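Lecture notes, unit on protein representations.

Consider one protein chain, 187 amino acids long.
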Amino acid sequence: MPGQPPAQEIADAEALRALAHPMRQKIEQCLRRGPANSAALARELGERTGLISYRLRQLAKHGFVEEVPEPAKGRERWWRTVPGDRRFPPYGRQTPEMREALTEIHRLNIAELIASAQRFEEARDTLGPWADAALFARATLRVDPDQLRAFFEEYIALLYRYASPEGGDAPEKRAVLIRLLGIPETD
């Protein structure tokens, strides 16, 4: 079982802008499925290889992806995501530049969630037992900010408790998208 890495706060506005780029987010999503080279990513994403290579280098500059030397041949470079528990500074410590980047990151994440749900519904008839595997829960908690942070930390620990070890995927396992969204009511 992989251990939970220490939380890493991303407080650099340039790093946040790198994550807020739509194509870089798509590249990172692709790499979460496994290592790939820029040519394969370019084909999958419908982009030029040189542009994908540039965007990979930008993600690598901030430690979000890294080269994988094992499958490389000649000048070919393979990439993978760098695992980690990445966090963003609380709103009160964000600069206007950070807030702008985080707003875009959140917008892209919500759009990805909606697209993933639509793809699941469209493919559901072909998924066999996985068609019944979608989970949904809706709840309202009455907590103070400290309790909400404690809830979040327990949620992160639970994710790591169930994470598969590197290379330990059994054939019957499938990646499952897990998202937690907690927004305080404002009225």
